[in-house]
Amino acid sequence: MGINLMSDIFEEGDIIPIMHTCDDKNISPPLRWDSLPERTISFAILCEDPDAPMGTWTHWIIYNIPPNVMELSAEIKNEEKLSNGMMQGINDFGYAGYGGPCPPEGEEHRYFFRIYALDTTLNLSQGANREEFLRALNENVLDEGQLMGIYGR
């Protein structure tokens, strides 16, 4: 994993600020990365909670991020197709866009934000879910990276 995925509001292993969780504004965090692998056509980001009681829970799928974009500001709108051409898949809460950490009370969960540099754009129909997204990644990943934050209630 050669891409350093970072946020200005939490570091690897730190607590994700409450405004980015279901206990507050539930807005996507700002993210940035430092690597543009050769032949990158687009980036994609997946956020998941592997500690969820029912198995891995998908919090965010955003893809077809242009290669000249090296950061996402906070509070990306929860729409399937964004005005700049980026797309968002359906999270496990049942809607397009970001759904923040929302673990059961008394538990601390890990949230993995994973970035993928791709040699293509993903040709997914609107409303794509995690399985469709992962299948589309297939052999198109040039490099990847991750940032893990924690949150508990």
TrEMBL record:
First and last residue of the signal peptide: none
Highest taxon listed in the record's lineage: Archaea
Pfam family, one: PBP
Record CDD domains: PEBP_bact_arch (cd00865)
PANTHER family in UniProt: PEBP (PHOSPHATIDYLETHANOLAMINE-BINDING PROTEIN) FAMILY PROTEIN, UNCHARACTERIZED PROTEIN YBCL-RELATED
NCBIfam families registered for this protein in UniProt: YbhB/YbcL family Raf kinase inhibitor-like protein
Protein name: YbhB/YbcL family Raf kinase inhibitor-like protein
Species this chain originates from: Methanobacterium veterum
